[in-house]
Amino acid sequence: MQYFGQIETKYEEVFLTQSYIYFKKDEEENLNPKDIKSLLKTKDDRKKNIIGTIFIYNPVVTPMGFDSNKFLLEQDFNAFDELIELKSEGYITIFKQAMKESCKGKIVEIKNLFNLIEPHIDSSTLLSKFNEDLEKYNSNQNTEFDRDIMYLDAKNYLPFGKFVYFCWGDKLNAKEFPNIVDYAKTIYENSLRSGKKIAFAYKKEKTIDWSIQYLQFSNPMQNHKNKNSISFAIKRSFDTFPPIPAFYE
C-alpha cells in the first residue's frame, strides 16, 4: 500500500487538499505520484480507478522523508501544491489492514471534514471558529479559513467508487456547533443519494440508526479507550465488499 497527497499552505497553516491510498497489486509494484496522477487524470479515469471513499475528521500526515513530530513549516519542505508520497502511519495503517484484499490494484480516496493538518483540532476554540466559518460559507461571506482549501463544497459533493466509509468520529455536537453538524449532514446525505454503499463502525449499544441520526461514526484514533475494538470492527466491515456497518462492544 502507498499513500499520496497534496499539501497546501496559507496564513502559516498547512492543509491536505487531496489524498489517496493505492493498494498494490503485489509487493513488487511501486507507483510514484506521476503514476497516480495519470490514473486520476479525467473524470472517467477517476470512475474507473477509485473504488471507494473514506471520510475522516481531519488529516494528520507527514511527507516521506520528514519528521512526523515537528511542524512541517519548521522543516525544509517545499513541495507544496504537488502530489507527493506520504508516510503510511496512524489511521492509514488501520485502513491498510482492513482493505488490502478487497481494494487490491485500486485507489481509495480519503476526504476530510476539515483539511487542516492539526493533531488537536477538536479544541473548543478551533471548533467555534469552524462553526462560525461554516455559517459564513453558506451565506457566501468571506471565511476566516480559505474555503477552497479548508472545506468541501458539501452541497455539490459526489463521491467516486462503490462505497463511502464514514470514520469521522463521535464528537459532532449539534447543540454546541450546529453549522458543523449541518455541513457533515449534507455530506452524508449527498453520499447516500449518490447510491454508494454506506458503512461505518459503531458502538453496539448505540445502534446503526442512532449513529446515523447523530452522525457518530467511530474512529479508532479519536477513541483510544476502544481503539482495538474499533479497528477490528473496521476490518469486519470489509469482510464483505462493498463494506457494511460493523459494531464494537
Pick out its properties.
alpha/beta; 249 residues; 20% strand; 8-stranded mixed beta sheet
Write structural notes for this entry:
With 249 residues, this protein is of the alpha/beta class. Helices cover 30% and strands 20% of the residues. It contains eight helices and eight strands. The protein has helices at residues 33-39, 43-49, 91-99, 124-138, 147-150, 178-193, 208-213, 227-237; strands at 2-10, 13-22, 50-56, 83-86, 107-112, 163-167, 197-203, 246-248. The chain has an eight-stranded mixed beta sheet with strand order 4-1-2-5-3-6-7-8. Strand 6 (163-167), helix 6 (178-193) and strand 7 (197-203) form a beta-alpha-beta unit. Helix 3 (91-99) packs parallel to helix 8 and helix 4 packs across helix 6 (178-193). It is globular, with a radius of gyration of 17 Å. The chain starts with a strand and ends with a strand. The model has no long low-confidence stretch (mean pLDDT 94).
